[in-house]
Design a protein that fits this description.
Beta-Lactamase; Sig_transdc_resp-reg_C-effctor; WH-like_DNA-bd_sf; Arc Repressor Mutant, subunit A; 240 residues; PAS_4; Helix-turn-helix transcriptional regulator
Length: 240
């Protein structure tokens, strides 16, 4: 009964699509465990599955139907212009468009990068009538991991252990990503001698003698997936 009531409200905002097609679309995304949602050509939200409601942090007493991004009572509403640009690109290109959304998702206390893909939806007359979006934790895969045949894994914003200070964690991030001491020093506004000395202290803490050994340590402990939160910022990055 709830689905039928939602259908009536949604159909008024998207008359170009048949009830049968929309019903099938809603039933499909409601069966998924990851976040999925539907928007019309005016960028109004029409439906979100439970995972999407959790992902966006929409209050349980808030009716999402017919709302624009900036009207949603959630921190990510400030990304509305970029999110609507995402809608337009999917509609215009006629294919999926991917972005990385970095913000406070799933009611988490720190910002997190998520991979979001939007697809155009067509009716029987081959007219674009809506977009469907899907979000999941952003996974990364470096060239070294590809060679080692390792599976992609989610980036983490909490250090795997508490061995290191905040300043050491920043150096670790850049060192693992193969920046030299002079490059790290420039990024962190330190002298390269300071970076070299701190790297030696970092090596001593885990009992290694070289960057190669330390990178192996990072792979084994998860530090190769760690990003200090102060090094990332809220926003949207288009990747296709």
């Amino acid at each position: 009964m709830l689905l039928k009531l939602n259908m009536n409200a949604i159909m008024k905002k998207m008359p170009e699509i048949s009830t049968e097609q929309l019903n099938s679309l809603i039933l499909s995304i409601d069966s998924f465990n990851e976040a999925w949602g539907i928007k019309n050509l005016q960028s109004q939200h029409l439906h979100m599955n439970q995972a999407a409601l959790n992902f966006t942090g929409i209050p349980s007493n808030f009716n999402i139907e017919g709302k624009l991004d900036h009207e949603c009572p959630a921190p990510w509403a400030e990304l509305a212009p970029e999110l609507q640009d995402h809608d337009r690109r999917a509609e215009k290109t006629g294919k999926s468009v991917c972005i990385i959304e970095t913000h406070f998702w799933n009611n988490e206390e720190s910002i997190q990068p998520y991979f979001c893909e939007k697809f155009p939806v067509y009716n029987k007359d081959k007219q674009c009538v809506a977009t469907v979006w899907h979000a999941r934790k952003f996974n990364s895969l470096s060239p070294l991991e590809l060679i080692d045949k390792r599976s992609p894994s989610a980036l983490i914003l909490e250090p795997p252990n508490d061995l290191f200070t905040k300043s050491e964690l920043r150096i670790i991030f850049f060192a693992v990503n193969r920046l030299c001491c002079k490059q790290i020093a420039k990024k962190l506004e330190l002298s390269h001698r300071t970076v070299e000395n701190r790297l030696l202290i970092i090596y001593q803490k885990v009992g290694v003698n070289s960057l190669h050994q330390f990178i192996t340590y990072c792979k084994n402990t998860g530090f190769d997936k760690y990003i200090p939160t102060e090094l990332i910022s809220k926003g949207v990055l288009f990747i296709s």
